[in-house]
Design a protein that fits this description.
Layout lengths: L3 E5 L3 H13 L3 E5 L10 H4 L9 E4 L2 E4 L1 H12 L12 H30 L5 H24 L10 H15 L9 H11 L2 H6 L9 H16 L8
Parallel strand pairs: 1-2
Antiparallel strand pairs: 1-3, 3-4
Helix pairs in contact: 1-3, 1-6, 4-5, 4-6, 4-9, 5-7, 6-7
Amino acid sequence: MSDITLYTFLTPNGTKASITLEELGLPYKAETVDITKNTQKKDWFLKINPNGRIPAMLDGSQRVFESGSIMLYLVDKYDTERKISYAPGTPEHTEQISWLMFQMGGLGPMQSQANVFSFFAPVRSDYGIERYIDETKRLYGVLESQLKESPYLAGNKYTIADIANFTWVRGGTLLLEFDLSEFPALKKWRDEIQQRPAVQKGLTIPETGRSEEQLHNMLKAGRERILGLKNEDKN
């Protein structure tokens, strides 16, 4: 039996964890860690994740932090029927891990920087915005190439690799307003995953008291602020 508490917020990394829990049908409690108020830097949370980032999780006394680690922990311990994962030691499992690490080491960091320069930076840097948006789109092209050959990233089965990349692709279309028409296979994949009941539920976790639309409007206000600044980058 699980005794899981998920500490999270409505971000692509946060919803990676909640969708995984929902797909596995595991009971869990969700605690809101409001990153807009720096709650993730409080002492009590740093005892769960020393890095001060969401999501983090407790399963009984076992702490797990970093979103990819949470996903791997959950499928290793609880996905005995291999609903959203492949058995370790198989070629498909290796492919699944590769695409999970693609998101962790590539898509997530690059799109995060695109977000920072587009919404949060104290100065405007056209160079920074262009660099990270272009790199994010290049990574979307990598996903597009794979999904032209395979219905899911790691073969014929939907896995945690798809969940991890899906939340970021969805975030790119909502926040950075990327048009996926140039990535038709990626768009089809995103649309199909978005219809899954567990995904729809996971995207609402945790309840923050603010709608997703309100959060998006806050980010759009940040973009308008940056666009109104004089470009101070000298590169």
